[in-house]
Amino acid sequence: MRRLSLVGRVVVLASAVAMVVVLVVASSLIAIVSLRHAEARESRAKDVTAATLMLQSIAADLEASLRGFAITGNAQFRSRFNAADKELPAAFQQLTKLVEDDPQQLHRAEDAQGLLNRYVSDVALPIIEIIRPVNAKAAQSQAADELEKQSANEIRDELDTILNTEQARSAARASHARDLARASIVGGSVALVLSAALVLLFGAWVARQVAAPVRRTSEAAAQVAAGHLDVRVEEHGAGEVGALVSAFNSMTRALEHNQEELLAQNKLLRESEEHKRDLISMVSHEIRTPLASVCGFTSLLLEREFPREEERRYLEIIDQQARRLASIAGDFLDVKLLEGGGMTLDRAPFDLVDLTREQANLFFSHSSHLLELDLPDDPVVVDGDRDRIAQVIGNLLSNAIKYSPPGAGVRVVLSQDDGRARLAVADEGMGIPPGDRSRVFEKFYRGSEAASAIGGTGLGLAVAREIVTSHGGEIDVESEMSRGSTFTVELPVGAVAE
Amino acid sequence: MSPRRPKILVVDDEPPLRELVVVTLGDAFVCDEVDNGDEALARLSGDHYDLVMLDVMMPGTSGTDVLRKMRDDEKLRDVPVIVMSAWQSPQDVASALEAGADRFLAKPFRIDELGSMVRGLVSRSA
User: Fold this and answer.
1) Rounded CA gap, B3 and A254, in Å?
2) Phi and psi angles of residue A483, each rounded to the nearest 5 degrees, phi first
3) Is domain A344-492 in CATH 3.40.50.300, yes or no?
4) Burial environment of residue A205 by CB neighbours within 10 A (0 to 12, 13 to 18, 19 or more)
5) pLDDT exceeds 50 at position A333
6) pLDDT tens string B19-71
7) Going by C-beta distance under 8 Å and a sequence separation of 6 or more, which residues neighbour residue B24?
8) Cβ-defined contact of B111 to A405 (cutoff 8 Å)
9) Tens digits of per-residue pLDDT, A269-301?
10) Domain residue limits, chain A
11) A458 φψ region: left (φ > 0), alpha (ψ -120 to 50), beta (else)
12) Staple A95 to which of A51, A75, A295, A453, CB 3.0 to 4.6 Å?
């Protein structure tokens, strides 16, 4: 089922409360109106009763004065009769007006009026006529007396019926009004209790759905402000509040993630800062060592006399160490080129066998390491930059010497297979820890602590890899701790030179 | 007949540096050369030396380790040692002196500085 939004829920609940309140007010109004209605009925019933009683008294007057006249023949009774007769139309008009919306009572009133009129015209007036010429005794005849009594009784009955009916109705109406009022009071009270309960429920609901999650969220926000980014709010609450809580949680998740990233970046930066410091100190060391020979021998040559042979030897050392300095500077220049992608190759076909032998002689002529050189008899011609490839081979050979103990063997094997020249340089050195193997080709990477006692800029292999890959070749390393490392360079073989 | 020439052990993994020290000190001293720490300790336990010129950063046993072992060894405790290093931050110098070095010589050094430092230490201990 689709969840209603918070606004939707509040609207629905508020409407329910409003409806109950309207019901309460409406039932009260109904009770008041019906009570007033019953009151009006009762007062009309009283009027009807009064009008009927008036008619009864007129009828009684008519009867009494007629009797008086018939017995005495006194004209005073006659005039009383006439006065009562004159009052009749007005009294009937009043009654019919009061009961005009009640057909039954109206009918009865008209009957009573008819009876009275007939009583006057058919009974009373003839009796009076008889009395005038003859004596009073005639009027007292049995028949006339009977007729008069019958008529008078009929009228009395009719008026009594009207009276009784009106009183019975009035009583019924009053009782109905009381019932209605009682029902309205009961209904109103129930509705009042219901609406109070609903308002309380509404309050509780708002507290549960809105206030509690908002409070929890604000507490969590305070914790976040205090730096606890792992705080999460229980995802509970209707519509917008639920959305707020869930948005808060995703915000803290994002903040936590960002903080972790920042911390990681910060750590990297710190490491890189340390790395840079180490690098500067390492570079200054790398430069100072050859510089010490250059400066020292230069001073010796300037200050002392030496036999020509020795002089030449010292000059050679100076030359060699100066070249070493130049090569360090070259490494840095190469790195600059690597970073800028601006290394250009001066390609020409050359014999890799010849170049390998040349480099091996260069590096092993003054070394205590035992070189084992395994070269093919036929030339292996590569189309590439001879000086750059010489740099790669030189780097691998000097590493093999640098990272293995004096007197250890270094095996250099060149082979050609399937259009690829493969040069392997294997040493019997300390080996490269597994974690460092993938990183030795990164620039400035100097490996583990064991290797850091050995000088170097951490640039040679990075430059070597760049040179090899720009020739379309590959460079790789295999290593076993305390057994040694084997660096392998594979280069595509070019056309055989003329 | 001149007196016995002082005997000096030069320990450095860089051959040109060893040669520079040897040539600088000249005929007034007898110099032996080794290129690593272990060999230096082996030589020291066999022969008497009047002074050791010791490089710090070498593959295998470092100059600082050699120095500590010497200072722990009763026979070698008083042999003067000049530590020479291209690592010359205040911490590097302090750790060399704490390990028992008599002098610290920063590379590159002046040859007359090397000469006077060696002569000073040798004459004092003689």
Assistant:
1) 82
2) -110, -30
3) no
4) middle
5) yes
6) 999 999 988 899 999 988 999 999 999 999 999 999 998 877 889 999 999 99
7) A296, A300, B111, B114, B115
8) no
9) 998 888 788 777 777 888 898 999 999 999 999
10) 6-207, 344-492
11) left
12) A51
For residue B109, the distance in angstroms to the closest alpha carbon of chain A comes to 6
**Whether A405 and B17 lie within 8 Å, measured CB to CB:** no
Q: How distant, in Å, are the alpha carbons of A28, A97, A112, A150 from that of A146?
A: 59, 33, 19, 6
**Helix (H, G, I), strand (E, B), or coil: what is residue A37?**
helix
Nearest Cα neighbor of A77 from A154, A139, A153 is: A139
User: In whole angstroms, how far apart are CA A211 and each of A217, A245, B47?
Assistant: 10, 12, 89
Answer whether A6-207 and A344-492 agree in fold.
no
Assessment of whether the complete model's pTM goes beyond 0.80: no
A55-64, A181-190, A262-271, A439-448 — which is least confidently predicted?
Answer: A439-448
B109–chain A Cβ distance below 8 A for any pair? yes
Q: Which residues of B touch A454 (CB under 8 A)?
A: 57, 59
Q: Which CATH architecture has domain A6-207?
A: Up-down Bundle (1.20)
Which of A356, A480, A358, A472 has the alpha carbon at shortest distance from A425?
A356
Q: How many beta carbons lie within 10 A of that of residue A483, not counting itself?
A: 13
Question: Closest to A453 (Cβ–Cβ): which among B14, B57, B111?
Answer: B57
Sign of CA dihedral A32, A36, A37, A39: positive
Q: Render pLDDT for B99-125 as a digit per residue (tens, 0 to 9).
A: 999 999 999 999 999 999 999 999 877
Q: Which residue type sits at B42?
A: A
